[in-house]
Write a structure and sequence with these properties.
single chain; 178 residues; alpha+beta; three-stranded antiparallel sheet; 6 strands
Length: 178
């Protein structure tokens, strides 16, 4: 690789348009993972210090270039001419069940919610907020669902550990009533 690692990382993150793992960055630049992580952090710190229009966010062990919140409305005016509708209450409830119980099958989501969740899960998948994550080793081999990086981005989370804690007694009581 020629040039500064930060410049190459900037090009990789911009070109990818989605999150890139530290291991992928290290491999692309031909450097150690620790050096890649340090270079990404230096670049992110520089963007923050200069209050640039874009920033670099961490998503687990990956990084992505995205719009700084301050300029999101301006970008949205150009990129999304039609205002996207928010999620319905049932979709939000379905999403929260998946987020807190993942990986989870559709039937388990429906058992917890007490209603059919087909429509909500289809809409959440179309928006890229949930995705299939294999199949459960059980009769019928039902599909397992998990939240995605898009879910983390939309809710301003770096990882699932940042989800608000739920009182386990309330959660257990809800499931017992189903």
């Amino acid at each position: 690789m020629t040039g500064k690692p930060e410049n190459a990382i900037e090009a990789v993150l911009f070109g990818a348009g989605e999150s890139v793992t530290v291991a992928e960055i290290a491999e692309a630049l031909g450097i150690e993972i620790a050096a890649a992580r340090e270079s990404v952090q230096r670049l992110a710190d520089r963007y923050d210090a200069e209050e640039r229009g874009i920033k670099i966010i961490a998503l687990g062990d990956a990084f992505q270039m995205c719009t700084r919140e301050t300029y999101a409305d301006a970008v949205r005016m150009v990129v999304e001419p039609k205002k996207r509708r928010g999620l319905s209450a049932s979709a939000l409830e379905t999403l929260s069940v998946i987020a807190y119980h993942q990986p989870i099958t559709k039937s388990r989501v429906e058992m917890i919610r007490g209603v059919d969740s087909s429509y909500s899960m289809t809409k959440l998948a179309e928006r890229g907020l949930i995705d299939e994550a294999g199949r459960l080793d059980a009769p019928g081999r039902p599909i397992l669902y998990v939240t995605t990086e898009e879910f983390l981005r939309c809710f301003g989370l770096h990882s699932l550990e940042e989800l608000p804690k739920v009182d386990s007694t309330i959660d257990a009581g809800k499931e017992e009533n189903v």
